[in-house]
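Bench notes, afternoon.
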Amino acid sequence: MTASILEHFGKLEDFRIERGKLHALPDLVVLTICAVVAGADGWEAIAQFGRYKLDWLRQFIPLKNGAPSADCLAYVLQRVSPEGFRSCFQEWTDALVQATGGQVVAIDGKTSRGSRDRRGGRGPLHLVSAWAAHNRLVLGQEATDEKSNEITAIPKLLSILVLKGCIVTIDAMGCQRAIAEQIVEQGGDYVLALKDNQPTLHEAAKDFFATAEAADFAGVTYDAVAETDKGHGRVETRRYFITEHLETLPHRDEWRGLRSIGMAVRETWTGGRHTEERRYFIASIAADAQSFATAVRQHWGIENRLHWRLDVVFNEDASTIRKGNGPVILATVRHLALNLFERSGSSSGLAAKRRRAAWDDDYRANVVFAT
């Protein structure tokens, strides 16, 4: 049994002095979570939910002085520590997730475009997230420094994750020696995409597979698997090749745990049009094509199952929360809401779940407060 939202977020430190507080911090946080689950996307909508659902909310939180105003919510939650909020989220998620050997943990970043504060001279929030492909849950997130990039955020995010027995997948931005070493140090394996950020390594992998294919892989020990999907006038074939022949890779000893290189080939036929895409990877896993294919394929789950749904269902790109810590707090709440819906186990789509949470008090209670 997992601890409740109230237990975990009750630990969040309140920056306010005791006198003059109209609303307890846990009340404001739980109200915000419930409102976002039910379809609210900004401070005013969260406040409206509080007013309309005050009696329902008081079954779970005191709200002794009634529902807070939008200004109150904004003032407090824009000043709450994002590190403290993330820590509460992390503890709750760790209690929820049961790690499985070989689980793919995909790391990727997303920009909340509407969070740019032009008047304040601040760029949009860019959050790097970890996605558990098997559990379909957000494991954690880390905001990039405003004048930095994902390379600085990924190690911080990895450090708070339990990676033992997992396969970590990262796109080319995260293909760095230090990141590979950290993953291995934490007991995980990696499958890292190669592109122009590692031009020498990328070219060597590309040349190896081109030469091997031209010779029909004569003298090369490798494993391969193919998949084909058909539908709506479109045929897509994906082929995966992986080998432990690393002799032609430059500086291979500098990559901790490096064991294999892989190539993923995707061919698509739509009408009379044919396209082909080839991608190359370095990995610490053995040359097992099915494991490699699963890792590559499931990495894109963070785009389809997380980023796309945050934009389409939770309207993240349209959010105009811009001040203080508001963007990162609300982004973390959206991640939490998505995890709550995944935990609920219903087969309905996420948009349908969110609508039902707006209409059905019992369903909303079960989504947010079931342990």
